[in-house]
Amino acid sequence: NNNFLRLHPMSADGEIKCFTQFHNVHCKQGFLYANCEDILRLSELPSDFRYDMEWPIKKFPLNRTGHGIEYHAEMQVYALATSIPVEFILRDENGDPINDVEQERDQLLPETLKFSLELISPVTWETVD
Predict the structure, then answer these.
(1) Are 92 and 101 a contacting pair, CB within 8 Å?
(2) Cα distance between residue 129 and residue 119, in whole Å
(3) How many Å apart are CA 25 and CA 117, to the nearest integer?
(4) Within this chain, do residues 39 and 68 fall inside the same structural domain, yes or no?
(5) Which InterPro entries does UniProt cross-reference here (predicted)?
(6) Same domain for 71 and 37
(7) Can you give the pTM of this predicted structure?
(8) Each residue of 20-46: pLDDT tens digit?
(9) Between 111 and which of 8, 64, 85, 129 could a Cys-Cys bridge form, CB atoms 3.0 to 4.6 Å apart?
(10) pLDDT, tens digit, 9 for 90 and up, residues 103-126
């Protein structure tokens, strides 16, 4: 529901005395605030986040299925468990692939999931090597 007031605390440069919206050609949907030292700041929220939820949300394409995410404070990255579908390979009791299985023309081959654990930078939203 988008009708609720959402509070997203911020700790920029001290206590905020006053706050107002600000919008012009150089600062789209921005805001002005003055801190307790009477310093006026002009700011702008990143446009690729949603702020109408309990937590700010940013979507980015994974091209795979996400199963879980956790922030690793010491490394300052997100650990993300993902999977992609891969062709299922039938193997014999020694682990060797069985290649002589005949496939019907309209037959769908089974798939399985290949899982990965990736570290994602919250700055660039890219995988960390």
Answers:
(1) no
(2) 8
(3) 42
(4) no
(5) WD40/YVTN_repeat-like_dom_sf
(6) no
(7) 0.55
(8) 999 988 888 899 999 889 999 998 888
(9) 85
(10) 677 777 789 999 999 999 988 888
